[in-house]
Design goal:
With 176 residues, the protein is mostly beta strands. The protein has one domain. It has two helices and eleven strands; from the N terminus they run E-H-E-E-E-E-H-E-E-E-E-E-E. The protein is globular.
């Protein structure tokens, strides 16, 4: 079985945003107020509400991010620390949600059934260098885990697209 090398995206220090490709030209980045809006997200993930749906903001810290396909579905993987990309990917792909830790956030999100892009929030929507992705059409919840394996010296944030709707808009689980 051949595995395609993941495409990683990084920011210049601010949050990454995920939005429909068809709406990206309206993002004004640092030239307007959209970048400031994205920077208001203090959690691992948050949403900016729009009439057509939600813009996902990956907050907390500007970690390199890629899209992976796990046995439990599609997930955004954010690299906190690891000796190598291979070590990070191996643990991220085999880690099971039943293993500690528990989710740190569950975020309800309205997604359109169309292609999305992930890009640095500082960029203007007409001049972005995005990563393309297609979230599952029925995903309504983004569940976030922070995983650290000190023996392997690997740490990552995993945002999993789930098909269930959590109660309320955002459920925070206390950090340990």
């Amino acid at each position: 079985m051949t595995t395609q090398k993941p495409q990683w995206i990084a920011s210049e220090g601010g949050p990454l945003v995920m939005m429909p490709r068809s709406k990206a030209s309206s993002w004004n980045g640092v030239e307007g107020d959209h970048y400031d809006d994205a920077c208001q997200i203090d959690d691992f993930a948050g949403v900016l509400k729009r009439s057509w749906g939600d813009i996902l903001v990956l907050g907390d810290e500007p970690a390199q991010t890629t899209l992976i396909v796990r046995q439990d579905g599609l997930a955004l993987l954010r690299w906190l620390h690891a000796p190598s990309e291979q070590d990070l990917l191996e643990l991220a792909l085999r880690w099971a949600p039943e293993d500690p830790p528990s989710p740190v956030e569950r975020l309800s999100i309205r997604l359109l059934d169309e292609p999305y892009i992930l890009f640095d929030s500082v960029q203007h929507g007409q001049s972005i260098e995005p990563m393309d992705l297609q979230p599952p059409p029925s995903a309504r919840t983004l569940t976030t885990f922070v995983v650290k394996d000190e023996d392997k010296q690997v740490g990552f944030i995993l945002h999993r697209f789930d098909h269930t709707l959590s109660k309320g808009h955002l459920t925070l689980v206390p950090r340990e």
